[in-house]
Structure formats: C-alpha cells, structure tokens
Predict the 3D structure of the following.
Amino acid sequence: MLITLTRAVSRTTFIPVAIKYLLTASTTSRLLVAGSRNVFTSPVSCNDEVKKAQAATKSREPTIFSKILDKSIPADILYEDTECIAFRDVSPQAPVHFLVIPRKPLTGIDDATDSDEKLLGHLLLVAKKVAEQEKLDKGYRIVINNGPDGSQSVYHLHLHIMGGRQMKWPPG
C-alpha cells in the first residue's frame, strides 16, 4: 500500500500535502482536503463500489440518503431546496465530488415517470449551480448509476458530479 501511495505522490503537484497524508493517514480511504477540494484520493475504491452495487438490493426501505434528507445523519450540505439536496460524497473519486438527490424517494432513473420531468430538469440545474459554486469552470462530469450493472449501490436516485481534474474516457 505504501508503495502505491508513494507512486501516486510522485505523480502529483501537491507533493508536500501528499507527504503529510502519508505521515498521518491511518487507512487508505482517508483524504486530504485543501480548502474544500481534495488533493489526494485513494485509488482503491472502484472495485469496492462494484462490490457494494452487487450487494445492494432495490427496496423502498430507508437508505443512507433518506437519512441525510431527514437529518438523522450528518452530511456536508452544499445546497438545499424544497425539491432536492446537494452534498459532498463521503468517498470522493475526484478533487470535487458531490451528489444531488431528490427529496422524492425515486429508487433510480428507471423509477422516474413523465410526471418527474420537471424534477429531473431541476436536479440537472442544481448540479450546474453547485458546480459553479465549487468553481468547476473547466468542466465536470455528471453520472447517474442505474441498477446492478450500472454500479448503483444506493437505491435512491442520485447524480454524481465530479470535477477538478481531467476525466478519463471511456469511464467504464
């Protein structure tokens, strides 16, 4: 693990910050934050997300997102209105990574109907507004994971917005 982290450090322009991370991190999932932007993230989370998605089940039971909505668990909230909420991802995959979720309990995009058209448009506009707030002026990626093969690990519709670095293509 230390070798992997050291290699990652040698490729970053944030060497002093990354070295501080190496000296203080107790697990590979810890992050450093410079202001509100992560400068170092662990490269091990991709397979973890696939495993979580394979274990997840579509259900109408409360999810971690419904608990964030009802404030029974804390989140770093970036935006909130009557239709949705935006907050930082707890396991960021980019220097800036936040989620936008509707208050309406849609399990995924497949659960949306024509009557949700206005809500879905609103989610995209909120994503744009928060991306501007987060100064993602060079661009960002919006992702909706849907179903097991789409690596959806939480069955409450959510948009991932990632930026702050060049995104790779193809993503999958």
Summary: Residues 100 and 127 are 7 Å apart (CA to CA).
